Amino acid sequence: MPLADPQPSAPGGFAAKAFAGEVVPFRVVAFREGHDLVGVHLRLTAPDGTETLHRLAPLADGTDGWIAWIALDATGPWSYRFEAFSDDFATWAHAAEVKAEAGVDIAVMSASGSALLSWAAAEADRPTAERKTIRAAAKRLAKPDAATLSAVASDTALSAFFAERPVMTLASSTAPQRILVERERAGVGAWYEFFPRSEGATRRKDGSIAGGTFRSAAKRLPAVAAMGFDVLYLPPIHPIGRTHRKGPNNTLTAGPEDPGSPWAIGAAEGGHDAVHPDLGTLADFRAFVKAARRAGVEVALDLALQASPDHPWVAAHPEWFTTLPDGTIAYAENPPKKYQDIYPLNFDNDPEGLHAEVFRVVEHWIAQGIRIFRVDNPHTKPLRFWEWLIGAVNAKHSDIVFLAEAFTRPAPLRGLAAAGFQQSYTYFTWRNTKEELEEFLGSLATDTADYLRPNLFVNTPDILTEYLQFGGRAAYRVRACIAATAAPLYGVYAGYELFENVARPGSEENIDNEKYEYKLRDWAGAEERGDSLAPLLTTLNRIRRAHPALRQLRNIRFHWSDDDAILVYSKHLDAAFTGTGAHDTILVVANVDPHSVRETTVHLDTTVWGVPLGEDFEVEDLLTGSVWTWSDHNYVRLDAFAEPVHILRVKERS
Question: Considering the entire predicted model, what is its pTM?
Answer without folding.
Answer: 0.96
